[in-house]
Amino acid sequence: MFTLAIIGRPNVGKSTLFNRFAKKRLAIVDNTPGVTRDFRETDGWILDYPIRILDTAGLEDSFDGSIESRMRTQTEEALKRADAVLFLIDGREGVNPLDKAFAKWLRKLGIPTILVANKCENETTAMAGTAEAYSLGLGDPIPISAAHGHGIQDIYDALAPFFPDEESMHDKDESFDFLKGKDLDSLEGDEDFDFAALEDEETSDDKPIKIAIVGRPNAGKSTLLNALVKENRVMTGPEAGITRDAIAVDWTFEEKKFKLVDTAGMRRKSKIKDKIEKMAIDDALRAIRLAQIVILVLDAEQALDKQDLTIARHVINEGRALVIAVNKWDITKDKKEALEFYKDKVAHSLAQVKDIPYVTISALKEKGLEALMKKCLFAYDNWNKRIATGRLNRWLDHLVSHHPPPLTQGRPNRLRYITQIKTRPPTFAVWVSKPKDLPDSYKRYIINGLREDYDIKSVPIRLLVRTSKNPYA
Fold first, then answer.
1. d(CA 61, CA 68)
2. Which tens digit of pLDDT belongs to each residue from 346-365?
3. Of 69, 57, 4, nearest to 27 (Cα)?
4. Contact present, 351 and 447 (Cβ < 8 Å)
């Protein structure tokens, strides 16, 4: 697929244009410079043409190992994957020395580059913003407004000569068949329309398994993702809160396709004052909601505290398969004592899900990663487990005969029928004579019985209690 990188100095509107091409709000957008740090990629559209889009960090003239320097390195990595570049400048502010330095750099790289002057909402701004841009030596500048969608046709016309011919694109276009019949223009800028959810409607077995990597700041989430994919795909460092956007990376393990999502560190709500951090955590919560497996990364040097448990409970409440990775195990002194502590704490604090798998790892030294993925696949299989209705009802009769539910008004409260109504997570419905009188303790008894007898461990189980309508009422 044709890959397009969007680059430019901070706060020129790269993420806004990225979201417009993606037709949904993926990248965090704010007026504060330097919000984007890692490059982000997704499938999108320029008009009716499917492309792969890369959103990059704002270019800074820094080479000293700082966060800005690492952001620049990430942008350079993105350019290696690009077939063409959109170089954005701010049409209101005009050309500045940074623009000139990076234009010179781009000319040396030899990548097809389209110069775009953003924030040109009216003709006066457009004339002022483009006149000075000719000095950059990148051809005719295109005035656009990413926020309002102006100038997209002009970008398409400028990129069209670099698009592959139709025959080579034929096979690639099939990945967008799920959008056939959809009015894409009506979806432009629709914040509530979720293309990812639409994609989940596909029945292909070839879809990647989505894994979100979550945890508190500085637990080693980004280091873990880099260790799994064996490249410096996302920024890491000793500073807390480096990751902001939830970055998705395609990866293959044991011939299975995965989509790994690195997320921002999640602190307690009471400690979050910064608007950008709040948006980053909202992005992380969205990643959990769309994931199938969630890896909760813990720092072995720190005790399993309330925030770790809060994140774990949120994952369980969302119905995701949870796997715990205890990171930095290589520098843990008393390993036996620490392991017993984590085991007991998880068993008592997350009692609603039995036998949550946990693995000790060192993301920095790439130890324990294969065992971690094995646990993820085990949890994924349990998350998708289905049980035949006939077996379930024979099992229910046996369960009730050993321990019937409490009487209600002196009469038996009959459990008539049970069936599994969905997977992901396993969800069961049981028909009861008087559902309101069935105590929570007995519902837990049914759930625990399902866990033990059908070996549904490590994932949430949902039980819905229903009643049949009385035809004589």
1. 8
2. 888 888 888 899 899 999 99
3. 57
4. no
